[in-house]
Amino acid sequence: MMITPDPLIVERPSDTIAVLRLNRPQVRNALNLDIRKRLADEVNRAAADPAIRCVIITGSDTVFAAGADISLMAEASPVEMMARNLQQYWRAIMDCPKPVLAAIEGFALGGGLELALCADIIVAGDGARLGLPEVKIGILPGGGGTQKLARLAGSKRAMLLLLTGRMFGAAEAQAMGVVSEVAPAGQALARAIEIATEIAAQPPIAVMQIKEIVNAGLNAPLDMALMLERKALQLQFATDDQKEGMRAFLEKRKPKFEGK
């Protein structure tokens, strides 16, 4: 009897970091309904675990995710696509209160790139190839790709990439603001773990507030965004971590943040 490998492997490189590794090598980590659900469930589980402070989503050394599983969509009707409500699974990742990082090696195409764009920080290996090629199969990116790429890269650059479906490399992605950092090929996950470790050492409430305020402020007028920022700052003074952080600074010692 053949044992089917787990399509999503959960790893804990440290007590504070959860790594979710896509593991469907036979289809280049194509995103079917099951793996979308598993990702959402594991992110929600990490969000509810006070010990975990960062989540990293990654694939293999050769592919992050080559896109959605086209075999499940080829003959679907509009009503079937609506009933699947695929956006709920990406929303769970976007709404995670804790920082989410994506570590990309190889291809991140279509739904794979849209998955990565749900993360707060993207680290790409130098050989990574990204793209939203949906136009080439008669559709368009429907998991946030058109809107996020246009907001990150600007409408003119996004139009070129979306209308041609062409791929682009890690360095170009970083120059456009799509990727946070480029690592040497094969080192994206290691670098993402280093960044997550650095973030995990910061005060968890402040980290969550920074994420919330940045995301909320991007969709608000500047005056409203600045007001949200002021209120979030003021609320930090109700935390033990604020007192610990400032006392440690004055006492010239390393702070110990407990998320309280």
Describe the 3D structure.
It is built from 11 helices and 10 strands. The protein is α/β, with parallel strands linked by helices. It folds into 2 domains: about 10-200, 2-enoyl-CoA Hydratase, Chain A, domain 1 (Alpha-Beta Complex); about 205-250, Lyase 2-enoyl-coa Hydratase, Chain  A, domain 2 (Orthogonal Bundle). A 6-stranded mixed β-sheet has the order 1-2-3-5-7-10, with helices on both faces. The longest helix has 16 residues, at about 35-50. The protein is globular and about 65 Å long. The mean pLDDT is about 95.
Largest sheet: 6 strands, mixed
SS elements, strand count: 10
Q: Specify the overall morphology.
A: globular
Tell me the helix content. Answer: 40-55%
Run of helices and strands = EEHEEHHEEHEEHHEHEHHHH
Kindly provide the radius of gyration, computed on alpha-carbon positions and rounded to a whole number of angstroms.
19 Å
Helical stretch count? 11
Quick check: average pLDDT? 93
User: Low-confidence runs (pLDDT<50, min 5 residues)?
Assistant: none
- CATH architectural type of the largest domain: Alpha-Beta Complex
Q: Say which CATH homologous superfamily of the largest domain is assigned.
A: 2-enoyl-CoA Hydratase, Chain A, domain 1
The CATH class of the largest domain is: Alpha Beta
> Structural class given helices, strands, pairing?
alpha/beta
Q: Gap between N and C termini, in Å?
A: 50 Å
